From TrEMBL:
Keywords, sorted A to Z: Dioxygenase, Oxidoreductase
Family matches, as InterPro entries: Gallate_Doxase_N (IPR034939), Xdiol_dOase_suB (IPR004183)
Source organism of this protein record: Paraburkholderia tuberum
Top-rank taxon: Bacteria
Identification of the protein by name: Protocatechuate 4,5-dioxygenase beta subunit
Record keyword Oxidoreductase present: yes
Domain Extradiol ring-cleavage dioxygenase class III enzyme subunit B: 7-273
Pfam families (alphabetical): LigB
Molecular function via GO: ferrous iron binding; oxidoreductase activity, acting on single donors with incorporation of molecular oxygen, incorporation of two atoms of oxygen
Span of the signal peptide: none
CDD domains listed in its UniProt record: Gallate_Doxase_N
Length: 295
């Protein structure tokens, strides 16, 4: 039977892909970020991950506002990586497992999630930006990807709780698949950032760390927040954090943190974190007394 061996939360900032393609891994301004992904790549290699289920949002590359689905899942043997204006990237097409993808689609629809299914569509930086930092790609990717796109752009958005329940249904789908596969669920986006308007450049480090603490230990509290709460606390684009809740919903109640790298050097709090199921051994982060964003 397929099993979930862990989960990854990661930013999907497009400039990560640009910096990677330009070979800036040792540049002083970028090295702290790229170095933070090396333990994640090593973890995936050691765990022999066969499949990455990528929960991301499409940035009007595959879909546009005249028909933008709430939840969409890609089915296909491969997906091209989108040219978002900087030229085609020197990366192979993302590989898919059609049998697994079809099983997940069937299971989610029967679990009352009305999915849009897409084929042969390009995948943008929501997935493709962090992917080469997680997996080697020469001559090809070591495994397959199940791309699941979530609407975090055009209102009405799915609620935080709905995304969490998507993760729960996704776990049921994966664990009912008869083939022995090691699956990792990847939630992307965030953390705090705003790239336009009066608060352009806004970040909230205290909230970012509180979110990470609650995500691990008390995700239910995050489900009560509205989209406006996420925007107020982390900036307009931090509503992407609801995709991390879909990742969290696919995991057991108790999680232990394997690795965390938090790097705020631009307008986005670029973060990568790895969790496995089990009891945490590190002391829990305690928010500042004057913070109380959610508590």
């Amino acid at each position: 039977m397929a099993k979930i061996i862990g989960c990854i939360g990661t930013s999907h900032v497009p400039t990560i892909g640009v910096a990677y393609d330009k070979g800036k891994q040792t540049d002083p301004s970028w090295a702290p970020l790229f170095d933070g992904y090396k333990p994640v790549a090593k973890w995936l290699e050691e765990k022999k991950a066969d499949v990455l289920v990528f929960i991301y949002n499409d940035h009007c590359t595959t879909f546009f506002f005249d028909m933008y689905p709430t939840f969409a899942l890609g089915v296909g043997e491969q997906f091209p990586i989108a040219d978002e204006g900087a030229g085609l990237r020197d990366l192979p097409h993302i590989k898919g497992d059609v049998k697994l993808q079809c099983h997940i689609v069937d299971s989610l629809v029967n679990d009352e999630f009305d999915l849009t299914v897409f084929q042969e569509k390009p995948i943008d930086h929501g997935c493709a930006s962090p992917l080469p930092l997680l997996w080697p790609h020469k001559p090809d990717w070591p495994g397959t990807v199940v791309p699941i796109s979530v609407n975090v752009l055009q209102y009405p958005l799915p609620t935080p709780r709905r995304c969490y329940r998507l993760g729960q249904a996704l776990r049921r789908a994966i664990e009912s698949y008869p083939e022995d596969l090691n699956v990792v669920v990847v939630g992307t986006g965030g953390l705090s950032h705003q790239i336009h308007g009066e608060r352009a450049g806004f970040n909230n480090t205290d909230w970012d760390h509180e979110f990470l603490d609650l995500l691990q230990h008390e995700p239910e509290k995050l489900l009560h927040l509205t989209h406006a709460d996420y925007v107020r606390l982390g900036g307009a684009e931090s509503v992407e954090q609801i995709m991390w809740l879909a990742m969290r919903g696919a995991m057991a109640n108790s999680l232990k943190k394997v690795h965390l790298n938090y790097y705020l050097a631009t307008t986005t709090a670029m973060t990568v974190v790895v969790y496995e199921e089990g009891e945490e051994t590190e002391p829990r982060h305690v928010p500042n007394a004057n913070q109380a964003a959610v508590m």
